[in-house]
């Protein structure tokens, strides 16, 4: 096999090599069916068992919280931005948002199209380079829910703790850090994530929600945009993204084999510490964009003294086999996305490269 790239893409992103190899081995003849998972009916026993296994594994990794259900949807996390207010925002209520960056902003703007909104807290004044304090969150008079973004993929911030909203449903976009660490599902009415960072290939959106939240939906909504349609049909109302669900099931097995969410968290902490230690110890050559308490273990954002130097860094890194280190086009700078499947070796190689680049350009 050719050498694998040091892949720091923000999403779609690195998948575990073990999972890719397993998928390759069973690609053309899945479970002795004489066909691939993509070629069989989603109503058949084989696909249905994969679908159910993936749902059960996901809940098991979260400690089997009572009364929650897993949906596999399409349309990306971006469609959830709209479905959430469409399904949960009633007359006379306000959709509450914590504004932490580009993704929170996109979610909020969709809610504005649907009904009344309220900004419960914001770090916009700080250019989203920090997070609002949980104690600064202030809900509206009649909140339908509070929406937060656990990890801002572009800015590189990550909530280490989540607000206690009492009886107000807490909904979280976990697209860029789901299953990267343990969390208490029971704190949330719903979490959701596009699969393409920590769970599998793009094309599947995972929703984990309290079953009573997603059992009845407003009747005027189009069928596919009602959570209740997918809940009552166990995400098999229409053709599901079957290959993606199969891949998620394999990624979940891979997480189990690494000690579940605790094991994965320890690995992720080690990877992030390597990079942040390099940045913090570089005497200002590398500058972290986010303060230590709020920075993400998934998306490490940093800058160099000038844009020219950043361009030189990216060019040199590409020549050495590093992929995806350019920051998002909206903010510039540099970003290393180190999701679950990015190996420790890739992070060590990046730290070596950063040290070398500093010695030759410092
Ligand atoms: N939320 C976050 C935090 C993201 O990082 C992204 C994608 N990068 C999205 C939402 C949008 O996801 P999708 O492309 O699946 O619609």
Automatic annotation (TrEMBL):
An example Gene Ontology molecular-function term: O-phospho-L-serine:2-oxoglutarate aminotransferase activity
EC number annotated for this UniProt entry: 2.6.1.52
Pathway(s) where this gene product acts: Amino-acid biosynthesis; L-serine biosynthesis; L-serine from 3-phospho-D-glycerate: step 2/3
Cellular compartments per GO CC: cytoplasm
Subcellular location: Cytoplasm
Enzyme class label: transferase
Residue stretches making up the Aminotransferase class V domain: 6-346
UniProt modified residues of type N6-(pyridoxal phosphate)lysine: 197
Reaction(s) the record says it catalyses: 4-(phosphooxy)-L-threonine + 2-oxoglutarate = (R)-3-hydroxy-2-oxo-4-phosphooxybutanoate + L-glutamate; O-phospho-L-serine + 2-oxoglutarate = 3-phosphooxypyruvate + L-glutamate
Residues that, per the record, bind pyridoxal 5'-phosphate: 77-78, 103, 153, 173, 196, 238-239
Main location: cytoplasm
Keyword terms: Amino-acid biosynthesis, Aminotransferase, Cytoplasm, Pyridoxal phosphate, Serine biosynthesis, Transferase
Pfam families per the UniProt record, alphabetical: Aminotran_5
Cofactor names: pyridoxal 5'-phosphate
GO biological process, alphabetically ordered: L-serine biosynthetic process
Alphabetical list of InterPro entries matching this protein: Aminotrans_V_dom, Pser_aminoTfrase, PyrdxlP-dep_Trfase, PyrdxlP-dep_Trfase_major, PyrdxlP-dep_Trfase_small
Residues that coordinate or bind L-glutamate: 43
Role: Catalyzes the reversible conversion of 3-phosphohydroxypyruvate to phosphoserine and of 3-hydroxy-2-oxo-4-phosphonooxybutanoate to phosphohydroxythreonine.
Subunit structure: Homodimer.
Protein name, per record: Phosphoserine aminotransferase
Species, as recorded: Paenibacillus uliginis N3/975
Protein encoded by which gene: serC
